[in-house]
DNA invertase (Pelagibacterium lentulum), 317 residues
Amino acid sequence: MYADAQKRSSRRPQGRLIGYARVSTDDQATEAQEMELRSAGCDTIVQEHGSGASRARPALAKLVREIGAGETLVVVRLDRLARSVSHLLEVIEDLTTKGAHFRSLTDPIDTSTPQGMFSLQVLGAVAQLERALISERTKAGIRAAKAKGRLPGNPGIRERRPDVLARMTAAQKAAYGARIQANANQWLPTVRRMRPDHTWDDIARVLKQRGLDWTPERLRRAVKWLVAERLAGPALLRKSPPRLPEDRLMTLVAGIHSSNPDLTLREMAVQLERLHERTPRGGTKWSPSSVKNLIDRARRSGLIAEAPESAADPAGG
């Protein structure tokens, strides 16, 4: 009986296994990692060449963005995936949010099993302790420097040395890119559905309704970075065409519907009121019928796929 329970608790999900193989330079090869990953059952393997000191890993970011629920990201060793414990935990958190799993072949980490989750919790505690120790050492160093009459911080930055400033700028750009990629799966699909038909203002307001705090300028800058890194198509940066007020409302409603098809017409009406959008007749109160008219127009225009005839009308509320 105990053996049966152990077998049930250690079952892994039946979803696809996707391997990730990374080497630090273009001169190195991923063949050894690929052999181990294929032996473990990975039918798809994503390769990447990138320094272990950098979080800017476009192939990994794209993989995490596109992985499906029930699928498992597999690596040979933890150091092939992440540069630090905190980076590892961020990646696993993104996978967990999407219902996906993570597994390392040579480390006791497999988020689809109770034992693997326990190991992950231990790593989280270690990361928290590491942050606390670094903070304490930093504070102690600043106190010691002040006691000796020295200013804390990098003297090269204070002296405005070009080489130091260049390294600092590069580090800031890498950190910015890492932040953008870390949560792109939460907002980029909405941007792709709504651009360039909608202004950055419209998209930022839709995202705000979903709890994502973006300003239009920050959003445009983030997409511009993704386009420059070839992680998004340049069409997203095209200028929005001028539209009549009702056409703009139609595409806005289409964007809201595409972002969350499960919303009822009444819930969409509430969202439009929260966005302070005027009805086609200039009113402030939206009715489900007004929303339905715009959705029907969007379907006829091809902005929304035709609903199956058997599907129930979401007009309730």
Notes: The mean pLDDT is 79. Residues 2-116 form a domain with the Rossmann fold fold (CATH 3.40.50.1390). The radius of gyration is 25 Å. The longest strand covers residues 17-23.
